[in-house]
Amino acid sequence: AQSVAQPEDQVNVAEGNPLTVKCTYSVSGNPYLFWYVQYPNRGLQFLLKYITGDNLVKGSYGFEAEFNKSQTSFHLKKPSALVSDSALYFCAVRDQGTGGFKTIFGAGTRLFVKA
Amino acid sequence: NAGVTQTPKFRVLKTGQSMTLLCAQDMNHEYMYWYRQDPGMGLRLIHYSVGEGTTAKGEVPDGYNVSRLKKQNFLLGLESAAPSQTSVYFCASSSPGGGSNQPQHFGDGTRLSIL
After folding, report:
1. Are A93 and A103 in contact (CB under 8 A)?
2. Fewest CB within 10 angstroms: A49, B34, B43, B77, which?
3. β pairing state of A10-14 and A109-114
4. What is the pLDDT of residues A56-70, one digit of tens each?
5. pLDDT by residue (tens digit) across B83-113?
6. What ranges make up the beta strands (E) of chain A?
7. For residues A67 and A50, what is the distance between their CA atoms, to the nearest angstrom?
8. B88 has a chain A CB within 8 A of its CB
């Protein structure tokens, strides 16, 4: 069965510092991995995805994520955090072998960036 | 460029009442989904559709019904609302391109309270 774990409910970081939001996953086959961001009273917005190839994926707003197959992780990173990055972040996984209809979302990590 | 539009944005119901949530997308996407978002639980899939006239159960389908009579619309019905259905409901759509590695596009949600 597919599953996603975001071990931190909340991450606090100072503006200008690097940030990492952690995600680990479990699928029976090869994964498609996604990061989404949610701002208050809005739907989820796509940030980036891993399909295959380079382990470092670059996405919107300066975010990137590193795929690590041996550790089954897909951590979200940004070199220099902005106050406007404060939001709720969701990691999600699809098993490529299931036809791609079902995406499993993590519980979310709230990011607070202090000025 | 509307994307995914959900109506209504807010609703308060009494236990036992019925209602229908409407989702409309203008991106010609084949796949559409209904999720509920509850604190600390991420998004859980209620029902989904892989094309006009087809629907399927997701992770938490009990108490809900759906219909996809037109490609651009996906309706979620609550026949007899219960307090446990108090939640934020999100509709999403996606393209089947790339072997289903495409991200989902989300509406801004419907906040539903059942008293």
Report:
1. yes
2. B77
3. parallel
4. 999 999 999 999 999
5. 999 999 999 999 876 666 788 999 999 999 9
6. 3-5, 10-14, 19-21, 24-26, 31-38, 44-50, 56-58, 64-68, 73-78, 87-95, 104-105, 109-114
7. 7
8. no
The partner residue sitting opposite B106, judged by closest CB among A9, A44, A96, is A44
Q: Residue B41 is nearest to which of A32, A41, A107, comparing CB atoms?
A: A107
| Cβ–Cβ contact B39 with A under 8 A | no
Whether the CB of B27 is below 8 Å from some CB of chain A: the reply is no
Q: Which residues of A touch B92 (CB under 8 A)?
A: 43-44
Residue B48: closest C-alpha in chain A: A101
Of B35, B50, B108, the CB nearest to A101: B50
Asked if A68 and A76 touch (Cβ cutoff 8 Å), the reply is: no
Q: Does B103 touch chain A (CB under 8 A)?
A: yes
Give the C-alpha separation, B8 to A38, whole Å.
19
Question: Which residue among B31, B98, B103 places its CB closest to the CB of A46?
Answer: B103
The confidence score (pLDDT) of residue B95 equals: 86
Q: Which residues have CB under 8 Å from B16's CB, separation 6+?
A: B80, B81
The pLDDT tens digits of the residues spanning B48-88 come to 998 999 999 998 999 999 999 999 999 999 999 999 999 99
For B98, the enclosing helix (H) or strand (E) is helix B97-100
**Both tokens of residue A76?**
């979200």
Q: Are A83 and A15 in contact (CB under 8 A)?
A: yes
What is the length of chain B?
115
